[in-house]
Amino acid sequence: MSWRRAPRCWWRRAAPGPACLAASGGRPILDMSYSRHFLDFQGSSIPTAMKKLVVTELSPNFRQAVTLRRDVPVPLPGDGDLLVRNRFVGINASDINYSAGRYDTSVKPPFDVGFEGVGDVVALGLSASAHYSVGQAVAYVKAGSFAEYTVVPAKEAVPLPSVKPEFLTLMVSGATAYISLKNLGGLSEGKKVLVTAAAGGTGQFAVQLAKKAKCHVIGTCSSDEKSGFLKSIGCDRVINYKTENVESVLRKDYPEGVDVVYESVGGKMFDLAINSLATKGRLIVIGFIAGYQNPTGIQPIKAEFLPAKLLKKSASVQGFFLNHYFSEYKMALQHLLKMYEKGELVCEVDLGDMSPEGKFIGLESVFRAVDYMYMGKNIGKIVVELPHSVNSKL
């Protein structure tokens, strides 16, 4: 059934009568709770049910924690909301922190999972229609993106010129690098910047943004393919830790230390980075992926020596969590989008083409994509494509 052919009572503000039920005997799209809202579908073909991933058990083991549910009712947008048909969703290292309940211990299963998505607006409420329209491409950061459809408050959506996976790389990964380095990095020409996991989703942006600040950039990675990618985006010194000893390289090539470390690995890499800081050096912790799969979520560090090491160098360690900087988020994203559109920023996407079972397509492949990340195989941001069937029926 096409929404374009729907009777007038589909869009009237009055509560819908029996005639407003789908011809096939389906549910009413407007019920009493939405009787005051204008829901605009404009020909969108929206099914009554969808698939989504749900955390059903708290665990850092993503496969154990998360269940793929089918035949879940497609949610309805409220007055200020958009209903987004997800086309691409992003994989983040913290997906398993979320599934383990580490972000909010008060939240109990079941709850939705996934942090970011890019897709098309297929329906929206009256207030939301002042700024958006059906068919518009948008991106968003909101829990619950691992679903075929997600309701997104219009004020939190980001309008896009088109639906492309490259835009998704900027939402969490790019914004994290931009805001953290701007606020905490103190970057200036000639500074030496070490980026750990430099070929990953956020590392790629830390490398490029530090280069744009005219810094000397050192990046760690785990393969020759990643080394080649890092050189292609301007990394001055690439250290493949599978073939070189990172500590030895830093001690030999940078005897006075590095000025800034963009650190996302944790454990032994954190200790190494602390030891490599220059006088007045800064270490920014944006994650510690090496420990996420542990029951505690962390790997031990030599913290008992930390105060002495920081004091000796007048150095600092600062944490960065994107949720605490949302007041700067839209400005940062607009800047990153302009850079990408001007060809000034590489947004590397890893859709799983080189993974053993091939490209990440469909919600079922999110499990593989998370495994792929923790095997350290990705170059750039891991993105899962959600294909849309043009034959979806009401």
Automatic annotation (TrEMBL):
Keywords: Acetylation, Oxidoreductase. GO terms for cellular component: mitochondrion; peroxisome. The keyword Acetylation applies. PROSITE patterns: QOR_ZETA_CRYSTAL. It is an enzyme of class 1 (oxidoreductase). One of its GO terms (molecular function) is zinc ion binding. Pfam families: ADH_N (PF08240), ADH_zinc_N (PF00107). Residues 61-384 form the Enoyl reductase (ER) domain. It comes from the Eukaryota. The keyword Oxidoreductase applies. One of its GO terms (biological process) is negative regulation of fat cell differentiation. SUPFAM superfamilies: GroES-like, NAD(P)-binding Rossmann-fold domains. Its EC number is 1.3.1.48. Belongs to the zinc-containing alcohol dehydrogenase family. Quinone oxidoreductase subfamily. This is 15-oxoprostaglandin 13-reductase.
